[in-house]
Amino acid sequence: MTQILGDSKEWNPVVVYQKLLPIVAIVSGNIFLGPDLCRSESYLHHSIQYTVDLFTSISKLSQWTWWTRPIGQYFIPELKNVFVHRAKAREFLRPVIAERRRLIREGLEVPDDMLQWMLSKSEENGLTDDDMSELQLNLSLAAIHTTTATTTLAYVPSSPPLLAGQPPNPPTPAELTAA
Hints:
Shape: flat
Radius of gyration: 20 Å
Strand content: under 5%
Distance between the termini: 19 Å
Helix content: over 70%
Order of helices and strands: HHHHHHHHH
């Protein structure tokens, strides 16, 4: 948490949404991929940026009329990035899935996380390794977007200054030194 929020005892203006993105990605990633993989820089970067780039792409593409969208897609760099994030998710998860399959074959203990639950049902549901990578990325998108947006918006009615990077009641110098 200190890496994300810092360890300053003084008031520092922050954009709440941006600070919550990695926190939510790590917490949800712990459930989806386990405690070892959820802090991977590659996983965090691509799961967060996939979420941001996808919603930015939707917003930008919706500004084009429906019949010009097939052309407009080529002018939205974030949309190109969405495909890069998908490829990187597959690249990141392929060796993880292969290792998990090896553990299953050898009868060894497997992690208890969403990826393992998906693996145990993959043959039954006809899921390929790439399908599972895509599903993991979409699960991350859902968790990151909904949790971050909801938590950020929870501050709006009660404390609009917090979203603007201002303390609700600025502390006095004496209060700051006492903290």
